[in-house]
Amino acid sequence: MPAFSGLFAPYWQSDARGVIVGLTRFINKNHLCRAALEATAYQAREVLDAMERDSGVKLAGLKVDGGMVGNDVLMQFQADLLGVPVIRPKIAETTALGAAYAAGLAVGFWNDLQDLRRNWQADRIWQPAMSEEQRAHLYRGWLKAVERSMHWVSDYGVL
Q1: Alpha helices for the chain (secondary structure H)
Q2: How far apart are CA 153 and CA 158, in angstroms?
Q3: Residue 63 gets which letter from DSSP?
Q4: pTM of the prediction?
Q5: Are 142 and 7 contacting, i.e. CB atoms less than 8 angstroms apart?
Q6: Is 76:126 a contact under the CB 8 Å cutoff?
Q7: pLDDT tens across 34-65, in order?
Q8: Least crowded by CB within 10 Å, which of 1, 31, 96, 141?
Q9: Whether 84 contacts 47, CB under 8 Å
């Protein structure tokens, strides 16, 4: 549970702290690395679940970008955890691209948003391969870890 400076959306718990739970004598560094990677997918699921609840719009797929999308294991786990396809674009670093698109639109280099949409291309799509039962089981474990990360800070510092 990477809550080193609290838990943000959807919990907003500033007194939460990072924890590692569920250790056995068989755990090794590979398990810890995998857990850190999976935590990213769980946190994304929680935010997307909150967005679905607030908007009433069901997620049909997730377009991703940024450095972590280069990790195929993470992208498959994200698709499995969400139960929807995860789509990585050919250009994964889209922050700079978005700024360039905005500038190009402002000076008339592109006519409209349709021009930009035509430039977007999928590189790879991961389909969910996990059963609903397994997804629910894993998510219950995550929620248990979230609960254990909360309320570590008191008026007197860390408990």
Answers
A1: 29-55, 72-82, 94-106, 113-119, 132-149
A2: 4
A3: E
A4: 0.85
A5: no
A6: yes
A7: 999 999 999 999 999 999 999 999 999 999 99
A8: 96
A9: no
